[in-house]
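Hey, can you fold this one?
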Amino acid sequence: MTNDLVSDADLLYQSIGKVIVEFQFIEHVVAEILASLLQMRNPIDTHRITAAMSYGQKVDLMCDLYPDRRNQKWPVIDLQITRNALKAAEEFRNTVAHSFWHVGGVQPKWMRTKVNIRSKSRLVVTTGNVNFNALHEGSELLYVVRDWYLGQTERISDATAKLRSLTKELSTTADEISAT
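Sure. Predicted structure:
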């Protein structure tokens, strides 16, 4: 490995880690608000919710309960924009977390490989160069999305659109190999 690969490895690991940690914070906030909406008073209840429900279930239930049960001190939020942002955050995290990151190529460099067998009942392998800028920008956007409960609709909506674009960029800047 060259020094560039070693330096890039540190950057890659930091970028992936930041995406994972930022998403965990988003999930924790959703669980905290859901616990409050369910009038669960024990601080450990947030962890119960996190352990018992998938992220999508938490988001769906929270969005369903929020209009009728929100604390009157909480802002009114656009639930469709909120749901879209929270789902886009998960999709970006999944794109990062469920990829194989490795050194490869003719001139060795960091690569991302994603394998999917659910695509039209056939194996699809996509491989491409690591997009460090997309990873960094995505983690910054997750930081914006984690404040969804503040009611900053336009800011959250912009972050959602950018996250979706980055998810697509990470997923399509690759060569696709299909096996039948």
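Residues 3-37 form the longest helix (35 residues). Let me know if you want another pass with a different chain boundary.
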